[in-house]
Amino acid sequence: MILDKISDQPLSEEKYEQRKKDAASENTDSSIELTKLQNLGYCHKDFYSGNILQDEGFSYVSDFGLTGPADKQKSNDKIYGVLPYIAPEVLNGEPYTLTSDIYSFGVIMAELSTVNPPFYDRKHYVSLALDICNGLRPEFYKELANKCMNANPKLRRTVIELNEIIIFWDNSIRFIEENEAETIPYDIFVEMKL
């Protein structure tokens, strides 16, 4: 995760059409990067699309200024990050955890699926924070993103589960594109628990 100079812009600034086309691979790259961070036992605490950089078709997580060991996260009554991506339990005064980053990943998935920033049509005021705590989530169509944004941190997916599911989706999409199949072979359909 040590980065050379990245030539492209953050994911949040990528052009609409390109984001729509590359959503699956961006989710894959981001989940792999988040897996690396969490496998080291670290919590990012500011995981949002503006901290995912693009370079030559790959996504990289950046801005580790708030990152710290997951087992040493303490609530100091300060909330850091970009409001729509902050987990409800953090907004309610709980410390940041690995599952807080999973919530943020779910918001990023929703953003990529709709190609709009979360709550782009609302001011980021206290009322938005209260609405998030009361269950407001960005519009999206993916069940997995919803599971990532579950208000109960214990019911969120792990980063390893996310990584496996997203890589499966990405591989399926690539298979279909490479084979330009009019119909999908039966064996491509593998039941995966979301």
* Spatial strand order of the main sheet: 1-4
Largest sheet: 2 strands, antiparallel
The top-level CATH class is Mainly Alpha
| Average pLDDT metric | 74
GO molecular function: ATP binding; protein kinase activity
InterPro entries: Kinase-like_dom_sf (IPR011009), Prot_kinase_dom (IPR000719)
Protein name: 17618_t:CDS:1
Q: Helix and strand layout, with pairings?
A:
Blueprint: H1 16-39, E1 42-43, E2 52-55, E3 58-61, E4 68-69, H2 88-91, H3 98-114, H4 126-133, H5 143-148, H6 159-179
Helix pairs in contact: 1-3, 1-6
Biased composition (Basic and acidic residues): 12-24
Region (Disordered): 1-28
Pfam families: Pkinase
What does this structure look like?
The protein is mainly alpha-helical and 194 residues long. It has a single domain (11-188), classed as Orthogonal Bundle (Transferase(Phosphotransferase), domain 1), CATH 1.10.510. The protein has helices at 16-39, 88-91, 98-114, 126-133, 143-148, 159-179; strands at residues 42-43, 52-55, 58-61, 68-69. The strands form 2 sheets. A two-stranded antiparallel sheet has the order 1-4. Strands 2-3 form a two-stranded antiparallel ribbon. 34% of the residues are buried.
